Amino acid sequence: MGKIPKGILILGFVSFFTDLSSEMIYPLIPVFLSGVLGAGALALGLIEGIAESTAAFAKVFSGFWTDRAKRRKPFILAGYGISGLVRPLIAFAASWPFVLLMRFLDRMGKGIRTSPRDALVADITQPGQRGAAFGLHRAMDHAGAVAGPLVAAALLGFAALSIRHVFLLAIIPSVLVVAIIVLFVHDPAAAKIPKTSEPQSIDSHWKDLDGTFKHFLAPLLLFTLGNSTDAFLILRLSNAGISASHIAILWAAHNAIKMISTYTGGRLADSLGSRKLIISGWIFYALIYAAFAFAEAPDILIASFLLYGIYFGLCEPSEKSLVADMVPLNLRGTAFGYYHFVSGLGALPASILFGFLWHSFSAQTAFFTGAALAMLAAVLLQISSVGRESKRLPDTEMELIRRKTTGLRRV
Fold first, then answer.
1. Which of the residues in the chain have pLDDT under 50?
2. What pTM was computed for the model?
3. 7, exposed or middle or buried, with CB in 10 Å at 0-12, 13-18, 19+?
4. How does 209-238 read in b/e, with b if 16+ C-beta sit within 10 Å?
5. CA–CA dist 17, 77 (Å, integer)
């Protein structure tokens, strides 16, 4: 396995500061909605479901257009810029619909940037090191998610600021993100993306994608239907009597585990195979949600929440590495768009269903349903032929040229 390009590190810093900003806000939203705005589980499910589904649809179109334009940076810059601008405006919310609007715009920015960014990560790495590259990138992303809640906890506890003030201060790392992208992120040479078989529409793009990739999307969608927003985990901890400042610290610890596990999981995906890790991750997710369904003691809930971070290490780099290996270079952005689309397609029904089950029955019913769907998805992937063979698509001629041309190694 060759040395991971420095462009991955640059994109890692972009994600680090983005998550620092985002995670100053995200773990406090359930507390803000319930304690300040008086909204409940149904409103939380609606907000997060619409937000994530919005991102899912945007990722399809941004993936398609980044392949057509043969450029990544404009989409990355626009996406990070939009999110960084609107996210702190949640501080001005007087009711939950305003939070919904800001989360909608925030996730729209995420949708614009994600597929081009993931395609860029794959563009500048060689087959056989993509798991490690995605793992390193996600580890730096989660490192920001560790710092964000700690900063929020310090501002709430030591500086005695209000939640609204913490939200406003999240603009500072967002400004750094835009500066890094403008100065240090570069498009790969246009010649890297072949002009052959250029699609004329999203439909033609879809038809050109390999059947194995499409078959992977079915169990992925089933899993997503049980993968509701993590805000419900935070709400469960809050209802167990854990304070907002302690939740922020727990969220930081949870993300520290995610950081370590994604870095390790990415390297394991390259050596053991992505499919095995995905199946293991979905089973592990089901066990964690089962624990949240049946546990009542705060200590057990806290331990389960921290262990939950291992799931991300098993699945995040493995899924992206598998997608990159199943599709050709000129369809890479589109493939990531569909991957993220399916991942987010179930977000709205998943979160609304979860909120409905929690509100109408109990938290235990909601968490057990999520566990059951995750286990079914793991079984479906296990019996499918997706990823059974470890072969990867052969490098294109332009990728071989890239290996020999050091100037094209820059991001």
1. 190-191, 195-199, 390-411
2. 0.73
3. buried
4. beebbebbbebbbbbbbbbbbbbbbbbbbb
5. 14
